[in-house]
Structure formats: structure tokens, C-alpha cells
Specification:
This protein is an alpha/beta fold. 24% of the residues lie in helices and 18% in strands. InterPro entries: DHBP_synth_RibB-like_a/b_dom (IPR017945), Sua5-like_dom (IPR006070), SUA5_domain (IPR052532).
Length: 310
């Protein structure tokens, strides 16, 4: 079944999004699971918001209702944590950080979509992430960073200005980050081997010289990165059967939980607007996917052969 974001968001509120912490008794959750019909309400959405909405895939199952009550508890091996989208209750994220440090794979919010993440330094976690989302060994993954210091550590950095008149792109990029952009940069030697080479220990590695980096402007995501004190490997969440973003963390838990996720951080329903991807490895920054981040004067669109504006 396919429903709109607007309906999904209010459905979560209808089943008890009160903002209270703590575990909900199993009997209480079962009472919700026995409801024969879904609860949904409709409200007017401003046009500027509605234009970003898209459809998300929902498994019609009473089981998904068990994630809808506010709690901090573990169900069937999955830790599901509801937090305030503005980060006012970041203490709830402590067990998530401990899981990440132990090699867990889970879902966190960003300023665009939800992302499946794991610790950059954990080889086994990266392999599990690829297996959970069924990502081919040749497909690249991105890095979610805390700051420019992480970017400078794991890449060769952004182009700098010089006496020959080359635009100082780094100075311009500082106005875009944190924000909804993914910049493709040349990987440095400090990036762990499993991030620059794909495949398991028994398969042939394929070298990759570049990596996508992000600094999301999301308080929950930033709180996790600060507590972890390091970057995360990241890939956005899509339906495994449909080419659609999954925007509701309740649905993500139901779809990917059985595949081996260790946790889901619920900070509300997102909108279907991914990051803008900019390739910084060529002579001029080129947009290879236009997303939420607006085109800057110094960027070239994919179909634009004009020089970068100075």
C-alpha cells in the first residue's frame, strides 16, 4: 500500500507521540496491535512543503504499530529510540552511541533523509551495512562528518585559491556546510582500507580514490557524531523493492529490522529531498545530482558547460 508523508506523520501522532520517555508495557503495545484499522487524519500543508512530499512504501502489518508508542526499549533485538527533532533530549542517544562503538549498524536522521550508518573504523560493520541494504561491492558509500577537521583527515580537502586566480572554493564551501550537500573529494591515506576498497576479505578488492562527505545540519545527527567522536559511514534508506525513499522511521524499523538493524533513531518523518551531490575532483565543481541544497554561483550544473562564476 502507498500513502503520503502527511498521512504517515499524523498517524504516528495518533497512536501516542506524547514525547514521554520510558518503556511501554508489552500488553499495552499488543492492545495497539489488535486495532483492525489504521488511524489517520489530514491537515492542510503549505504549498511550499507539499511540493517536496513523495510517496513512501508501507507494509500493511499490525506489527509496525508496536514502534509507534514513545519509548526507549529493545524489541526483537532492535533498539528503537524516539527523540525530539531539535535535540533537546540527546541523553537518549547514549545507548545508540555505545552500540555504534561496538560495531552496530542502525538508522539515524539527517537534514535530508534517514540514513543507515555504522562506525567508519569497523570493517565488520561496513560489511553488515552492505549486506543489510544489499549494496553491490562497487557502489560507493558516503561519510558523515562532525566538522571540516574530519574532512581534512579522510580526504585531501577542498580546492584552495592561488596566485593564478583559482577561486578559493574552500571559503565558499564553508557557507554551505553544515547543510544538505554531499561533496565528492579525493580520499586520503587516512581513510581506512575497507572504505577505499570494496568487498570481503575473500573477494577481489576494487580501488576507489574518491569519497562523498557530508556535514548534515541536523541537531540529532550532530549530537550522535559528537558523542561518538568520529565520522560514520552512511547510505540513505530506500525501499528494497521500490525505487522510493522510506521517510517514516516506523516503516524503516519494520522493513529493515528483520534484516539485521541494531537500532533506529526516530526524530519524525522526513521529506523526500536528498542532498545535492557536487563532484569536487575535476577542474570545476559540478553538480551531478540536484537535491535540497540550492545551486551556488561557483557550481556548474550537469548540463551547463559555462565556466564557474567567480
Amino acid at each position: 500500500m502507498i500513502v503520503g508523508v502527511e498521512e504517515m506523520s499524523l498517524e504516528a501522532k495518533a497512536v501516542g507521540h506524547s514525547g514521554l520517555a520510558g518503556a511501554v508495557p508489552l500488553s499495552f503495545r499488543r492492545s495497539f496491535s489488535s486495532f483492525p484499522t489504521r488511524l489517520s487524519f489530514h491537515t492542510a500543508v503549505p504549498p511550499q512543503t507539499r511540493r517536496f512530499q513523495s510517496l513512501a512504501v508501507i507494509k500493511r502489518s499490525p506489527k509496525r504499530l508496536k514502534y509507534s508508542a514513545p519509548r526507549l526499549t529493545k524489541e526483537d533485538g532492535l533498539l528503537y529510540v524516539q527523540v525530539d527533532q531539535f535535540g533537546s533530549d540527546s541523553w537518549k542517544l547514549d545507548p545508540v552511541v555505545e552500540l555504534l562503538k561496538g560495531g552496530a549498524v542502525g538508522v539515524i536522521p539527517t537534514d535530508t533523509l534517514y540514513a543507515i550508518v555504522c562506525d567508519l573504523s569497523s570493517h565488520s560493520a561496513i560489511e553488515r551495512l552492505r549486506r543489510i541494504k544489499e549494496i553491490e561491492p562497487s557502489k560507493p558509500l558516503s561519510i558523515i562528518c562532525r566538522s571540516f577537521r574530519d574532512i581534512d583527515t579522510y580526504t585531501t580537502g577542498f580546492p584552495r585559491g592561488n596566485a593564478q586566480g583559482l577561486t578559493d572554493i574552500f571559503r565558499a564551501v564553508k557557507h554551505c556546510l553544515p547543510g544538505p550537500y554531499t561533496f565528492i573529494l579525493t580520499a586520503s591515506k587516512q581513510l581506512p582500507k575497507q572504505c577505499t576498497r570494496y568487498g570481503s576479505a575473500t573477494s577481489k578488492y576494487a580501488s576507489r580514490k574518491n569519497v562523498g562527505v557530508r556535514i548534515p545540519d541536523d541537531p540529532v545527527c550532530q549530537a550522535i557524531l559528537e558523542k561518538l567522536d568520529g565520522p560514520l559511514i552512511s547510505t540513505s534508506v530506500k525501499s528494497p523493492k521500490e525505487d522510493e525513499w522510506i521517510l517514516d522511521p516506523v516503516i524503516i524499523a519494520d522493513v529493515y529490522g528483520p534484516e539485521g538493524l541494531d537500532f533506529v533513531v526516530d526524530a519524525g518523518v522526513r521529506v523526500a529531498d536528498p542532498s545535492t551531490v557536487v563532484d569536487m575532483t575535476e577542474s570545476a565543481p559540478r553538480i551531478i545530482r540536484q537535491g535540497k541544497g540550492p545551486k551556488q554561483p561557483w557550481m556548474i550544473a550537469e548540463d551547463d558547460d559555462s565556466p564557474v562564476d567567480e
